[in-house]
Design goal:
It is a single chain. This protein is of the alpha/beta class. It is built from 16 helices and 13 strands. The strands form 4 sheets. The chain has a 7-stranded mixed β-sheet with strand order 3-2-1-4-5-7-6, sandwiched between helices. A two-stranded antiparallel sheet has the order 8-13. The two termini are 43 Å apart. The relative contact order is 0.13.
Length: 406
């Protein structure tokens, strides 16, 4: 993997991250704190497809690519949340990869998976690596000279039923960031230590009422406390951002298919509207609802979403008999299990009843037994639906069976 990178801007970006390895999360001994369902293959399948299929039950056959792994924060979670998988983590920065290797050594992440490789290369140069069931590429494509070429390259590495998770910058919520970047560029601050010093001096020297300073202090100061994070936000030598229309055009041009936001609550008009306005909003086609949210919330600073190699046909569980024939799995991304009070897959507080807790315990202990056999009471269906609505229960279609399709 020592061939020259396909993106001519790669050395510039690589040198930047050698100076400022990102993200600057501290190293720790043992598993990373908390959980994030977006890095758990089973949880992602359940969120995007509505459930799991029998062929998903063999984690030893799962191949995962962390494309642009940086200092290994995402790789660490991918290892701990996908036991038995084969994982390839790549990044263009040797400095960031040095940190990533040490992170995974200390956390024991490599011991959780069938194999882990951490390689220095561009995501554009993975033609010899075969196909992957899941690709994670967070905060990467928008730093390529040609993001579309990057998205196409990742799409070519997707297995036919594979999913790709992406995070790309949004125009509106980065209004102040863009102006700060342009100001520092006009001041010839540079992208190294001097730029870092001048950038911090800029925010401390602007009038307290200045919009750029206020936004930084109120919204971004904590996130950019570490020098690497400050540099990534304000000094990066190459960056692209999108609005919703251009984002969807990018996906269409890549030949891939939009498969849903990984932060769907952000795109729900109910977060912003009520009464007659909410009723009108909810009567709109889904794409128009998202466009409305984009106009109403200029603080949205990024898009996080899934794309697929083929259109997704979600599993549906409207039929009670179909639900009872399915087996269940407990949501792996819980903090505090087993308990009536836990932190859920988005690290949100969740409370469940004793009956719900008991059903989840049964599922945990008998992952291949259909719900109807496992807990054949009249309360099983409503309990299961309630747990599904809280994203605590993942349903799996049995061998030879099929859930209802949209």
């Amino acid at each position: 993997m020592n061939t020259p990178p396909s993106d001519v801007a790669t050395p510039v970006v690589s040198d930047f991250y050698d100076r400022f390895p990102y993200p600057a999360d501290p190293l720790q001994d043992g598993p990373p704190p908390g959980y994030n369902w977006r890095w758990c293959h089973d949880s992602v399948l359940a969120a995007v497809r509505g459930g799991l299929k029998a062929q998903d039950s063999n984690p030893g056959s799962i191949r995962i690519l962390d494309a642009g792994c940086g200092t290994g924060v995402s790789t660490d979670y991918l290892c701990h949340l996908n036991s038995g998988a084969e994982i390839l983590a790549v990044d263009i920065s040797a400095g960031a990869l040095d940190v990533a290797r040490e992170r995974l050594r200390r956390s024991g992440g490599a011991d959780q998976v069938r194999s882990l490789r951490q390689e220095q290369c561009s995501l554009l140069d993975l033609q010899e690596e075969g196909r992957f069931d899941y690709i994670n590429s967070v905060g990467v494509l928008h730093h390529l000279r040609d993001p579309l070429a990057g998205l196409k390259a990742l799409g070519q590495r997707l297995a036919p039923q594979g999913l790709l998770h992406l995070f790309l910058y949004a125009d509106a919520g980065r209004w102040e960031i863009h102006r700060t970047q342009q100001a520092l560029e006009l001041l010839d601050a540079g992208t190294g230590a001097n730029g870092l010093m001048l950038g911090r001096e800029l925010f401390s020297g602007l009038p307290e009422t200045n919009r750029l300073r206020r936004t930084h202090e109120q919204r971004w100061a904590l996130d950019t406390h570490a020098d690497a994070n400050f540099a990534d936000m304000y000094l990066h030598p190459q960056e692209t951002s999108y609005d919703l229309e251009r984002l969807m055009a990018l996906i269409e041009a890549s030949g891939l298919y939009f498969a849903g936001f990984s932060n769907p609550s952000v795109w729900d008009p109910a977060r912003l509207l009520k009464g007659e306005l909410l009723s009108r909003a909810q009567s709109l086609p889904l794409a128009d609802q998202w466009a409305l949210v984009e106009q109403l919330d200029p603080d949205i600073s990024h898009f996080e979403f899934f794309v697929s190699a083929q259109p997704v046909q979600p599993l549906l569980w409207d039929n009670d008999e179909t639900l009872l024939q399915a087996s269940g799995r407990r949501q792996p991304c819980l903090w505090g299990w087993p308990s009536n009070s836990m932190l859920g897959p988005d690290f949100e507080p969740i409370s469940i009843s004793d009956e719900e807790l008991n059903l989840l315990r049964l599922v945990d202990e008998n992952p291949e037994v259909p719900l109807g056999i496992l807990s054949g009471t009249e309360k099983t269906v409503p309990l299961a639906r309630d747990l599904m609505s809280k994203r605590l229960l993942l349903l799996e279609v049995g061998h030879g069976g099929s859930g209802g399709n949209a």
